[in-house]
Structures are given as structure tokens and as C-alpha cells.
Amino acid sequence: MGQTLPKPGLRPFLPDDVPLLAAIFTASIEELTGEDYSEAQQQAWMEVAEGEEFGKHLASDLTLIATIEGSPVGFASLRGNDHIRMLYVHPAVAKQGIATMLVDALEKLAAGRGAQSLIVDASDTAQGFFAKRGYTAQQRNSVTVNDEWLANTTMKKMLGAGQ
Ligand SMILES: CC(C)(COP(=O)(O)OP(=O)(O)OC[C@H]1O[C@@H](n2cnc3c(N)ncnc32)[C@H](O)[C@@H]1OP(=O)(O)O)[C@@H](O)C(=O)NCCC(=O)NCCS
Fold this sequence. Notes:
The protein is α+β, with helices and mostly antiparallel strands. The chain has a domain at 9-115: Aminopeptidase, CATH 3.40.630. Helices cover 33% and strands 34% of the residues. Helix 1 runs antiparallel to helix 2 (39-46). Residues 8-160 form the N-acetyltransferase domain.
């Protein structure tokens, strides 16, 4: 806490990134979501990274990777032109602007693809982050993930001129 990170960078996803992104995914769920989800829910959520679909979705969505000194520390993906599907930051660098950098970039890419608004099914952990950026809650959802029910909130932001 409090120390300044070397300047982070952004780059596109490559197929070889899948194991590292799976590790960031599981570490961020394990260490950052414990106040919002039970251990059983966290476990079910982390197991998503073990399926083949995990890498396939990262490849078929527009996935961006945040790096520090060349090493991945977080990632985010855009599905179609208007849906943020994933946003995960390694706990070692949380609260230092990495997700902000990733979502700034996705918002610009979405606007560039012609989207007028951007939608995210935000975890309870990420809801405050998205609210701060101007996303507003549309509806609460319960989704099944590996036989556990997890709540999230569909949130939406209008992409105005200048995005
Ligand atoms: C949500 C998450 C992506 C935020 O990443 P991050 O890199 O820590 O976020 P940032 O540092 O860019 O935060 C930007 C701002 O949002 C705030 N913020 C971050 N997490 C927050 C939270 N859980 N609740 C409220 N505000 C939050 C920060 O304090 C910061 O505010 P500031 O600019 O006034 O200092 C990260 O906590 C995470 O990976 N969580 C676990 C996985 C998850 O839930 N992913 C979302 C799936 S939809």
C-alpha cells in the first residue's frame, strides 16, 4: 500500500497468456472477493479458469492485458461492442489504478466499435468500482457457476462524446 508502481502498460492477449491469466483470475477471486462471496462460491468461481472455455472466450473476446515491467498483472475483455465480460486484477497490485486503465481502454474501444453504451454484469466486489465510473445498476441477477448461485448486478454506462 502506498508505494508507487512502475508505469503499467497495456497489450493485446496472446494464446500463451492463458495460464498466467488463469492464475491472476484465481488469485483475485481468492483474495479480493471474500467479503462478498462465501468460500464455496469463491471456489466455484475460481474453477471457471480450469475449463477449456476460459481460454477460448479470452481469445474470441477482445482481451487486453495490463503489464508491469512486462509481466501481466490484470486483464479485461470486451464481448461484441458493448459488454465488459471480464475484469480481474492481481491482489498484489489492487487499488492502484490497473482496473481503471483497463476499463478506460475498453470504453474507448467500445465507442470506436460504435457502441452507445457499455454493459457489465458486475460482481458485488466490483460494483463500487463501476459505480464510481458512472455505471448505474439496472438489475440484480443470480447466476449458477459450477453448481453455486452467485449474485451480480447488471450495470450500464452511456458512452458520451469524448469517450
Ligand atoms: C474490482 C477490481 C477489478 C478493481 O481493480 P483495481 O485495480 O483495484 O481498481 P482501481 O485501482 O483502478 O480502482 C479505481 C477506483 O475504484 C475504487 N475501487 C476499487 N475497488 C473497489 C471496490 N471493491 N469498492 C469500491 N471502490 C473500489 C478504488 O478505490 C479507486 O478509487 P480512487 O480512484 O478514488 O482511488 C479488483 O478488485 C478485482 O479484480 N476484484 C476481484 C474480481 C472481480 O470481482 N472482478 C469483477 C468481475 S465483473
